[in-house]
Amino acid sequence: MTTIRDVAKLANVSVATVSRVINNNGYVNESTMQRVRQAIEQLNYRPNDVARSLFKGKSKMIALFVPDIMNPFFPELARAVEDISNKHGYTFILCNTDNQNDKEITYLNALLQKSIDGIILVSSTMTTSQVKDMKVPLIALDRKINPNLISVTVNNYEGARQAVQYLKKQGCKRIAHISGPENISNARERFRGYLDEVRDEEWFNSDFICVGNYAVNDAFEATKKLLQSNPEIDGIFVANDLMGVGVLKAAESLKIKIPNELSVIGFDGIELGNITSPSLTTMAQPIYNIGKRAAEILIQKIEHPNTVIKSEEHKVKLITREST
Amino acid sequence: MTTIRDVAKLANVSVATVSRVINNNGYVNESTMQRVRQAIEQLNYRPNDVARSLFKGKSKMIALFVPDIMNPFFPELARAVEDISNKHGYTFILCNTDNQNDKEITYLNALLQKSIDGIILVSSTMTTSQVKDMKVPLIALDRKINPNLISVTVNNYEGARQAVQYLKKQGCKRIAHISGPENISNARERFRGYLDEVRDEEWFNSDFICVGNYAVNDAFEATKKLLQSNPEIDGIFVANDLMGVGVLKAAESLKIKIPNELSVIGFDGIELGNITSPSLTTMAQPIYNIGKRAAEILIQKIEHPNTVIKSEEHKVKLITREST
DNA sequence: TTGTAGGCGTTATCAC
DNA sequence: GTGATAACGCCTACAA
């Protein structure tokens, strides 16, 4: 490996001068600069980032924690964060937490040892005490962790209300909800939105609510039971698209026609919903964009610790497809 | 930040001793070991990995290059690599290359500056000269780069033949192929498998072949044209599942019944194929497993540079679903 | 405008 | 068994 010393020797200057050229700060004569540049070129010298990190205490790396990259919601988020990291000269680290707090803590410690510069968390298991007093910048994405931790999310509550309103407008008279896990903030908000929209309807019945785990299979089973016990249901608001797929499959297996006999609306707007048949109407999140913003905000926090930064709540948008 | 020096001071020993305890090598008295352990505990000391990396010239980080994590084939690969990295104490870096060689080279250089320990490449654009004489271990995954670079792939050629044979067995008399990009090794092999299986059939017609780009939309358009000009086609072997979805959609839009009028078989075995209706018959790769093996081999190469390592070709497996 | 030297936190080599 | 100390490669006071 060629070091700054080799360059200095070849250019007949001190390492300090080479350093000045590399980082172009400090005074350096035009002609010596040329010499140094040439030596760098000639030796194909690249500064060692590890040494730099050691000196600066910063690594130019940021990490994203997601439950599981195999869940189709997360790749787009990851892509966005990686794009922005890359654009700003940061290296992107991906961690799958499986929603397990001990994994999160283990990753966190490992990354701190590596002088990670900042972390974006999609987490429903990190506790308030675990995130406060952290010396590295953190941002919550998709799920709020606590009110003091900056977050980038969408208007889950409003979006849920809009989804239910849309089903009503389509003529649904008995609207059910398949919710996400209660420990996930966005699932709670979507549930609350549903509830506020239906609780005063004379037809409302708490049997219309079931809890899913944001995965296809659970929703499939839940929907079968739901529709068999409550055949009067003519609309379902599903808390995410993945479960929406499960609902479509359940309806198919019960020979219930969509949208004629049952309307279904999901949440998220992942590409998958476009591929099912019938395709899935959904409240689409600006997925790429929230990932992008989280990364931008994080980098802002890293590079300008004093700027005031606020949480952001982005808007979801109705995308009507064949399931309604 | 608390350093090894702080621990040494508190335990009344030298940094050397602390280092011995941390890495448990060299002799150290049981009782002093206790003292040191306690001091570490008390100060909640964690060794600084950056300093370690600087000294060792290794970073305990490995990277995976994929074209685009948003393509549903790659998350499972990424998950596998991350799992294995993590298990062996490595940090996982993800890079999206968009199949662009300049991006690959930029990433490569950036990672070398960070003393990356090894890289797994899913690449169709890296050249032989770019990968040879690399000082860090490289492994090709999913796509071969050149015969000298260790690779973990599947038996694309044989799998393609099996796919076509299966269509024949289902009674197909005119079998078309939608291939992947010619610069991707696995696409070429799958194409060759198809060709060797059909070239001697009296019905064979080179119009039955079209080139796709491994994405849904292209295949959708290609299939429409293909089926309109050649209505006699009753079977399609599609080079990957993503394009398989495009084929299904095209058939639907042409009101062609699957599998009655047309049988479709894909390649890859991504979860998506299970969700379409009809669901997609496919030659499934052991996706997680090849990612896992690539990571294991890479780590082997990193930690035991002298062991002889060979390329691996894993087997694909027919999964019959509703499209045939 | 340039050079010297100390330090970032660890590890490993030598002495003792 | 244990302790000094010289690297690892870079950056930045401080001097000159």
TrEMBL record, chains A, B:
Keywords: DNA-binding, Repressor, Transcription, Transcription regulation. PROSITE patterns: HTH_LACI_1, HTH_LACI_2. It comes from the Bacteria. This is Catabolite control protein A. PANTHER family: LACI-RELATED TRANSCRIPTIONAL REPRESSOR, RIBOSE OPERON REPRESSOR. Residues 2-56 form the HTH lacI-type domain. SUPFAM superfamilies: lambda repressor-like DNA-binding domains, Periplasmic binding protein-like I. GO terms for molecular function: DNA-binding transcription factor activity; transcription cis-regulatory region binding. It comes from Oceanobacillus polygoni. The lineage of its organism: Bacteria, Bacillati, Bacillota, Bacilli, Bacillales. Gene3D superfamilies: 3.40.50.2300, lambda repressor-like DNA-binding domains.
